Amino acid sequence: MSSATLCRSAAREILWSRALPRASRTTPPALRCLHQASKSHTLTLIAASRRPLPLKPMTWSGVRSIFIQTESTPNADALKFLPNHTVLPSGLSSPFLEYLTPRSTLAPPHPSPLAANLLNIDGITSVFYGPDFITVTKAADANWAHVKPEVFSLITETVTSGEQIVNTVENSSAESGQEGGEKDTLGYNENDSEVVGMIKELLETRIRPAIQEDGGDIEFRGFENGMVLLKLRGACRTCDSSTVTLKRGIESMLMHYIEEVQGVTQVLDQEEEIAMQEFAKFEEKLKQQKGPDAVASTVGKGSLDTA
Question: Computed from CA positions of residues 265, 266, 267, 268, in that sequence, does the dihedral angle turn out positive or negative?
Fold first, then answer.
């Protein structure tokens, strides 16, 4: 073959290759698909090798999960703790227990080691147990920033250890060492009149849940001459707005639904009456200093107590 023929064959080869699409000048289709599948499989294997393995939840035998929530209450001196744990012992007829002195935490029928430890904290004045919450009240001059961590630590330690929060022991005396441990005053009594039964039902279904949300509870002490006698407990016992709660909340609702009710009166213990009298004297003294038009308040910047 002459050189001219070879040059013409080479030229035709070049023109033919340029006229074809780029894909046709590469690997044949069958081989190309096999190559792509192999490449995709390889990338999948690489990605799988780099993907982190799913972590299995770690479990510890004998250790319970603890989540304690803290809620504020209308009373600035009281905090509500929810330990996600049953607080009151089963079979207790009352929906709450309240410890006001260190002695009450040791006395039958329901001593509480946790309440004893809490009342040993400097500045803590009372411990209240609801069905599933604990309300701790401090003195007015105590600071939550100082006492709250210790309170939280004691509650967490007790719940974590599985220790019983409230014990039940035989009581040889007729008196109870704790407040509210004898019976539920809102419970049914066959000797109650129809009006008293309606009052109790309304207090149980409409009033008590709202007060428990605020870290307290309520006791029914009687119905005399159209007046409902009530006792506030827990955070509501020492709350400055307790009078507003009784008059605008409880009294208004009872009078709206039960025409025989003429009003609501709060029953005070002897110690509480003395405290109320001392507070009234202090309030009057501040009014004399600030003027007769001054409005007494214990909360908020610029209030009478902080001015």
Answer: negative
